[in-house]
Design goal:
Blueprint lengths: L1 E7 L4 E8 L3 E13 L2 E6 L9 E5 L3 E5 L3 H11 L15
Antiparallel strand pairs: 1-2, 1-6, 2-3, 3-4, 3-5
């Protein structure tokens, strides 16, 4: 899988891990790319559904697929990285 930016026919731009499946593409960890106060932000795609983790999109709904610049790939990988909660508290209370 590679990280790509997909422009849908609806105008939405999605950054995602992408796997080509012939007539469709499978997206994993899909995020909408939006602009807020002049900065790019990622918004989980359809975060209220299972599409937030995995979705298949028919290629007829895609205008184009492009490889993002390296800094955007780094930002995406940081945004989708799994954070593991420590087993023990590293904070101690002061009596």
């Amino acid at each position: 899988m590679s990280v790509e930016v997909i422009k849908l026919t609806t105008g939405e731009e999605i950054i995602s891990e992408l796997e080509d499946k012939g007539d469709s593409v499978e997206l994993t960890n899909a995020m909408l790319v939006a602009v807020n106060d002049g900065r790019l932000v990622f918004i989980p795609y359809m975060q209220y559904t299972s599409a937030a983790k995995f979705v298949t999109i028919d290629k007829k709904h895609i205008m184009f697929i492009v490889t993002p610049v390296e800094s955007l790939i780094d930002d995406f990988e940081n945004a989708t990285a799994k954070v593991t909660k420590p087993r023990k508290s590293i904070v101690s209370s002061v009596p």
